[in-house]
Amino acid sequence: MTNPTAALLIIGNEILSGRTQDKNLSHLATVLGAQGILLREVRVVPDVENDIVEAVNALRARYTYVFTTGGIGPTHDDITTAAIAKAFGVKVVRDALAEKILRTHYTDDQVNEARLKMADVPEGARLIDNPVSSAPGYSIGNVYVFAGVPRIMQAMLDAVKYSLQGGVPVGMLSITCNLGEGTIAEALTRIQEQFASVEIGSYPYFKQGVLSTTLVMRSVDAAANKAAYDAVHTMIAEFGGTLMEDPNKTA
Amino acid sequence: MTNPTAALLIIGNEILSGRTQDKNLSHLATVLGAQGILLREVRVVPDVENDIVEAVNALRARYTYVFTTGGIGPTHDDITTAAIAKAFGVKVVRDALAEKILRTHYTDDQVNEARLKMADVPEGARLIDNPVSSAPGYSIGNVYVFAGVPRIMQAMLDAVKYSLQGGVPVGMLSITCNLGEGTIAEALTRIQEQFASVEIGSYPYFKQGVLSTTLVMRSVDAAANKAAYDAVHTMIAEFGGTLMEDPNKTA
Q1: Residue % of chain B over a pLDDT of 70
Q2: Considering only CB atoms, which chain A residues are within 8 Å of B115?
Q3: Which residue of chain B comes nearest to A201, CA vs CA?
Q4: Tally of CB atoms within 10 A around B81
Q5: Which of A28, A67, B16, B144 stands 20 to 30 A from A6 (CA)?
Q6: What is the pTM of this model?
Q7: Which of A30, A62, A65, A77 to mutate to test the interface with B (most CBs of B within 10 A)?
């Protein structure tokens, strides 16, 4: 597959402590997938400069796009911009437009050095509009730096998504049945071998004590995906399985 | 801090496609944190052998413990065991006890080669009991291989957690107020400088259009953590802030 690829770097102790449940991964994956950009790796690192630098440099060398979330606010634990600048070997500079945006958004007595820190970007970065709380994100090279608050992150993604080089969208079809994975595994392997351009995933679930299995077909080839889906549907019938509601439907 | 460290490797296309929301990260972080083991990094990789091998080897060299979730079922996309064996440079072997467990759990007509694949482990692995659906997890070296289904993952973690070398538990205190991060940033920096053994995190939230800020204090030093909490509490009062309910309370 020649689709563009992407990685997400989640920056934040609050995710690693278990205190906060990330909500940005699935949103990013869904939006990118619709444009044919494949999310291929996610990393979560703490608010530690070296860890961020290392992850950014590993990921930006490997994937078409890297998105980061978190750590661009005004407080002492917001160190993403310093780390991104270090990763790119550039200085942190105060962006004149970003400063103007912040000075317009905040009243005079609210403007202070901590808030103006949110106008600091790695030299050469391009601002990303933040219609929610004004403090902008930015991109540098193939790295897009977003806020961690989901509403703001989503607005920033909306602001840049059409400027990304997309690919053929990845279609997804799924079917859930009351058969155990082990029952259908061998037949499913044969279907997977028959449809090499389709990625078939098998996911077991417990629902009210009953084990069910969801089969997911993903492909950029819509016809092959539908044919694989039909083959799976037939296979389920041949095993005497009953179709069930997908317990994990997101769309 | 000399606490043991841990990483989580989430293996699965279904997370990267945005279809499934991971539920294991926060559970693992919470259980480990209570034992003084610090979750320091998380990676999500697809069902691709080389990606899994590379991540396992990077993480097991760096952290005290590595936990993996996903990819140990009976279907063609379950390739975790082959990848773990490759990462350790050992063969995949059929474990006699695991096979006996599976043959006891399944009726004779349910036993097939796909299900018996779940008795295959990297040579030298130690089984981890699965009271939910019988197919065991295992550990090899400092790597613990769990199922991805949350109920099974949690049972496997319960089965091994007391055998892990713990550390001083990390205490967590939090306080939420209606002040913007930028308002308190400078004063908060001074409190952070005063309490070097406490990690103070600042997290903005939108709640019904109002921006609030949660301050989280984490430390293995309970007295310092409480003192930092008191200082933050006093600071909020000095700024005329109102305490609010924590919008993100997990415990």
Answers
A1: 98
A2: 182, 185
A3: B77
A4: 20
A5: B144
A6: 0.96
A7: A77
